[in-house]
Amino acid sequence: MNRATLETLFNEHHSRLLAEARSMLYDAEEARDVVSELFAELLQRQPCVEPGHELAYLSMSVRNRCRNVLARKTLTEKVTHLYALEQDTLTEEAETDRLNRLQTFMRSGLTEAQQRVFRLRFGQEKKYREIAAELGISEVAVYKHLVAALTRIKKHFNA
To answer: Which of 83, 110, 120, 148 is least buried, going by the fewest C-beta atoms within 10 A?
Structure first.
């Protein structure tokens, strides 16, 4: 798929793909993020898709990405709930120690870009698009930095 074909597909099918994502996620902002990330990734890696099957490929990709978002949401909700339960049992001193260990790891275990993206996403609760605009990077880059940061944090604290 070359750039011109991708632009044509975007112009022809963007609203349909957006509606499909919105129907699965029930969140217009997240739906826009999913569709934008898809086209950003396609622009970078330009996959080979059989002519005539582009719409099927795009629809399947949007559905898969939405499922991933929903799976992460479910996991995030579970983690948040468990964290809240754990908060009730932790003393203030233990919580302070835990936060200090996380901050120390973030300074030494994450790259500067990962730290900035992590803080903007979770500290300021910004959307991928807002972070990308603020840092002057693509939404795909924001996603990659977040995945790398979360993976490193998870490995460090589960080790």
So the answer is: 83
Place of tokens 């990962």: 114
Residue 66 and residue 121 share a domain: no
Q: Please give the model's pTM, rounded to 2 decimal places.
A: 0.48
Q: 11: burial class by Cβ within 10 Å (0-12, 13-18, 19+)?
A: exposed
Q: Are residues 111 and 37 in the same domain?
A: no
* Sites in the chain below the pLDDT cut of 50: none
- How many domains is the chain partitioned into structurally? 2
